[in-house]
Recover the amino acids of this structure.
């Protein structure tokens, strides 16, 4: 994440907006529940084939779509020949990446047999480098599910990947002041050509023997040598390029602010307009040379007699629909209903918890509507889980962006909130401590004395409402949540800044930021509300997602719900050690610190005159620039060169060609937009959350409900107040001109509306795009200062009391000094009837990287405040050859045992499901007996007996995460273990 990101934003008015919001054409099958009249779950195929065209068995039509959740990015396929029975071709993810949602795009090759896929964790859309060159790519065989991951990281932009009319596709990523084009041969499953060209090229697709792309206001071709030739000047930025079967290329181009043209250009440069309509009312799609134009009245809007033979209009299909390879089926809704909610806290992100996907479809020939539901179940699970070759062991990104366009480089905090140095590490052996003494970030992971409490959404809204009012004075008593912190109040520790010009941050702006940054979670998504665990963090290990590499130099120290980053590196002194700990463990302190950062961004912009609509902070849209700076930075004016560019950067400018020209306000068309958040800039996404709210699953009904109160708009329609995409594009302000191509030195070709070679088209002027009194949103508060902090009942309460015999020798997984609390309360108060009589020690797998010993096994090592006594550890099983990922824990009592004793292991009620937990029981004289059991208890805290043994000294029991069936998705846990002495040889005696 960018180091500049720091803050919270809010909006208001939930009921008024939701009452008038457009129902999403996407995700209706899932957000409204079962679509069949009798309330039964929809089938996974067409059950009444009379509603299909008569040739459905022989048409060869194939529908390919996608959806993502915490378990991975699912590529879903349905064939007409099988009545469109849905199956999962692949589920793609990367080991070691904690995310609530995988996002991306696909395209299908000309044969219909291969899909080229771009996928990334949702958080990548928040970060300029992650967006531009942090997505993974793969080729998926749609018949047998074979996955071939490609060795390059690419852009997450909406047009990536781009398929041609054959078996090739193009992937793109920015490279300095140019663009790198990667040509993929899907049949071979490899990149066959890499080219670097000047300027910002978008929407690249194979075309003829080369590549066609959008560049400025033109469609250009790029030959094998990298030479660029203009095919057509379109008068606007072309997008959605689709090759047809007659050496032509379909594309769209905006015409003014409200219209779009559908055009066709040929390889010889012949270009003509085939039709036009309102912006967003028409769309071009295609596979294998077939071009389909969708949208209401598409037939009327295009001159049908003039269409090439390989073109068809699909008149009654919404423009936003997805179209099958032959055009026989269109998808009008796809989603699990959780894309706007993230993973259900506390669930294990493995194949067994993949969310069912609802799909609404339309048969284009008959007009019949269908509702499907499919449970993702990939054919080649291990191939989809395997680490991408783009993340070679020992290699990771440095954290330096490929271009400084829009990257925060010299923005400073106006008032430091602390002066002491950060947390210092103890002199301990990293091979045997759960923490990271060699880390770059201030507060370590996996310290049982520093666990983050997971709040409920009500708790988050309560803190946010009070914080923006400057009244977050709830007292955190000494030792809050089991820490060693002294008593404090969140806004006593992080006092709010007064806004320049007066006023305050609206609650919904802060809530929108929290929704976009972390999905409203302070702790890992493995922890449910009321449960503690490690903090949710950004790039703590600097590993770019690899579970086999650590790069402390590239660490991005984003902590908690607001992803507070500045001041959270070990070398930084912005915060005291106490403040760093509070940011880590306490969601209220984290939000207070983040709010202060957002206020600082407002003040920087106000001081420099960069104001929206007059700068009245009560209106949500007037926080546009502060949101922009919060995400990608504010570049201050140079003190030595008055002509140097300054302002908010190009990356988040809505005029940037990285975002589709016909997009509407984020979420205004429905929650299906949350499948692809990368289609919008950061301020657009935050405004969308502020207007429509994040969704969370109601624990009673299991259905998504708004997570917080939304803003109120006088027209009842939030899109009325949104700026046009070219609002921040003016030649005399930031060298941006949507109607004039820029000439790159050494080339005669345009590169886009930004007229600068370095893309420093930074905006620094006030701008008014609406009358806020008539159209802008305002805050709606749910909580006032007198309202108490909402309570939460943990979904997974701890097993506080021992049910074992009184003579049981219990060895817990943490020392007796570790304090178990949920906030200020001790759920085990008066219930604990035992003490730990021994230790659990760990050995962590290591690797030599860049001349240093690092411990990649800690990347996927976690703690949770549940199980026996309120704490346990977990990781995921892997085959023994992954020595750098193996964790071994050993329980040892504090005394010798002579004679028979029964061994029992406590298994927690969640986050433990491996069928292959092998316990190695040392009898005290070197004799070792192995016992393999399943850790899946069916959702119960359970003492599982491992048998009775004749001990002859100080025993020990060890458990390793190395298993023969380890694929990285089965969880294995270390909780308490007990030895229960027996008076004589028992019936479950085990002899060596």
């Amino acid at each position: 994440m960018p180091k500049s990101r720091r803050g919270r934003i809010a909006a208001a008015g939930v009921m008024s907006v939701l009452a008038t919001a457009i129902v999403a054409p996407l995700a209706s099958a899932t957000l409204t529940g079962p679509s069949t009249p009798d309330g039964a779950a929809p089938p996974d195929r067409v059950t009444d084939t009379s509603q299909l065209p008569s040739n459905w068995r022989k048409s060869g039509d194939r529908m390919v779509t996608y959806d993502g959740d915490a378990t991975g990015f699912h590529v879903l396929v349905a064939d007409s020949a099988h009545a469109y029975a849905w199956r999962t071709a692949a589920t793609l993810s990367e080991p070691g990446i904690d995310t609530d949602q995988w996002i991306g795009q696909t395209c299908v090759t000309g044969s219909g047999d291969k899909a080229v896929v771009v996928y990334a964790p949702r958080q990548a859309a928040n970060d300029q480098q992650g967006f531009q060159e942090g997505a993974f790519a793969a080729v998926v065989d749609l018949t047998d599910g074979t996955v071939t991951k490609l060795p390059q990281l690419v852009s997450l932009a909406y047009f990536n990947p781009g398929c041609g009319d054959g078996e090739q596709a193009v992937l793109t990523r920015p490279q300095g002041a140019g663009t790198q084009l990667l040509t993929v041969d899907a049949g071979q499953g490899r990149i066959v050509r890499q080219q670097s060209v000047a300027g910002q090229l978008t929407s690249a697709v194979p075309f003829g023997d080369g590549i066609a792309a959008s560049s400025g206001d033109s469609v250009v071709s790029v030959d094998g040598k990298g030479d660029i030739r203009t095919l057509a000047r379109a008068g606007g930025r072309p997008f959605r390029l689709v090759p047809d079967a007659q050496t032509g290329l379909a594309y769209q181009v905006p015409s003014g602010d409200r219209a779009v043209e559908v055009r066709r250009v040929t390889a010889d440069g012949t270009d003509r307009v085939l039709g036009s309509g309102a912006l967003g009312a028409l769309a071009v799609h295609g596979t294998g040379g077939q071009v389909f134009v969708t949208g209401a009245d598409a037939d009327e809007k295009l001159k049908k007699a003039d269409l090439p033979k390989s073109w068809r209009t699909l008149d009654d299909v919404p423009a936003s629909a997805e179209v099958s390879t032959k055009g026989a089926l269109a998808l009008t809704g796809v989603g699990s209903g959780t894309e706007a909610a993230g993973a259900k806290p506390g669930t294990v992100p493995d194949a067994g918890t993949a969310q069912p996907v609802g799909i609404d479809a339309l048969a284009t020939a008959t007009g019949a509507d269908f509702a499907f539901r499919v449970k993702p179940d990939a054919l080649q699970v291990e191939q989809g889980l395997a680490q991408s070759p783009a993340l070679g062991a020992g290699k990771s990104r440095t954290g330096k962006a490929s271009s400084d366009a829009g990257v925060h480089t010299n923005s400073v905090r106006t008032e430091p909130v602390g002066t002491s140095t950060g947390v210092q590490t103890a002199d301990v052996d990293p091979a045997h401590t759960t923490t990271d003494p060699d880390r770059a970030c201030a507060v370590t992971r996996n310290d049982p004395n520093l666990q983050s409490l997971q709040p409920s959404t009500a708790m988050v809204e309560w803190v946010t409402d009070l914080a923006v009012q400057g009244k977050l004075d709830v007292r955190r008593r000494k030792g809050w949540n089991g820490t060693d912190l002294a008593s404090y109040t969140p806004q006593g520790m992080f006092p709010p800044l007064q806004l320049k010009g007066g006023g305050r941050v609206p609650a919904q702006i802060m809530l929108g930021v929290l929704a976009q940054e972390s999905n409203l979670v302070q702790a890992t998504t493995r922890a449910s509300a009321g449960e503690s665990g490690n903090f949710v963090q950004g790039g703590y290990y600097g590993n770019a997602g690899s579970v086999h590499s650590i790069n402390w130099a590239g660490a991005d120290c984003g902590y908690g719900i607001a992803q507070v980053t500045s001041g959270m590196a070990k070398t930084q002194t912005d915060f005291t050690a106490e403040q760093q700990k509070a940011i880590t463990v306490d969601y209220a302190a984290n939000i207070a610190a983040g709010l202060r950062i957002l206020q600082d961004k407002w003040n920087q912009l106000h001081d420099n005159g960069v104001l929206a609509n007059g700068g009245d902070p009560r209106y949500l849209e007037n926080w546009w620039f502060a949101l922009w700076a919060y995400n990608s930075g504010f570049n201050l004016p140079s003190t030595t060169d008055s002509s140097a560019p300054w302002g908010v950067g190009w990356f988040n400018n809505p005029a940037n060609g990285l975002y589709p020209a016909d997009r509407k306000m984020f979420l205004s068309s429905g929650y299906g937009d949350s499948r692809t958040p990368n289609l919008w800039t950061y301020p657009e996404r935050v405004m969308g959350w502020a207007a429509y709210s994040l969704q969370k699953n109601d624990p009673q009904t299991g259905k998504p409900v708004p997570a917080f109160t939304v803003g109120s708009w006088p027209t009842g329609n939030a899109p009325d107040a949104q700026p046009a995409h070219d609002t921040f594009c003016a030649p005399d302000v930031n060298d941006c001109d949507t109607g004039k191509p820029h000439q790159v030195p050494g080339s005669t070709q345009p590169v886009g509306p930004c007229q600068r070679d370095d893309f420093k088209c930074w905006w620094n002027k006030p701008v008014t795009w609406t009358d806020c009194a008539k159209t802008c949103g305002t805050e709606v508060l749910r909580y006032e200062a007198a309202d108490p902090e909402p309570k939460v009942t943990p979904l997974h309460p701890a097993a506080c009391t021992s049910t074992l015999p009184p003579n049981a020798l219990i060895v817990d997984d943490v020392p007796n000094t570790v304090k178990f609390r949920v906030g200020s309360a001790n759920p085990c108060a008066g219930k604990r009837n035992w003490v730990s009589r021994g230790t659990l020690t760990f050995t962590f797998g290591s690797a030599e990287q860049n001349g240093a010993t690092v411990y990649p096994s800690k990347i996927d090592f976690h703690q949770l405040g549940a199980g026996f006594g309120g704490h346990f550890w977990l990781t995921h099983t892997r085959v023994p050859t992954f020595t750098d990922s193996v964790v071994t824990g050993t329980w040892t009592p504090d005394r010798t045992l002579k004679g028979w004793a029964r061994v029992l292991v406590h298994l927690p009620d969640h986050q433990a499901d491996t069928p292959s937990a092998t316990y190695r029981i040392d009898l005290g004289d070197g004799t070792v007996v192995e016992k393999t059991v399943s850790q899946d208890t069916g959702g119960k805290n359970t003492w599982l007996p491992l048998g009775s043994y004749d001990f002859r000294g100080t025993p020990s029991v060890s458990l390793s995460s190395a298993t023969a069936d380890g694929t990285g998705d089965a969880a294995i846990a270390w909780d308490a273990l007990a030895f229960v002495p027996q008076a004589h040889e028992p019936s479950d005696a085990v002899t060596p």
In short: Residues 1-37, 393-426, 743-751 have pLDDT under 50 and may be disordered. Residues 95 and 547 are 6 Å apart (CA to CA). Residues 587-607 form the longest helix (21 residues). The first strand starts at residue 9 and ends at 10.
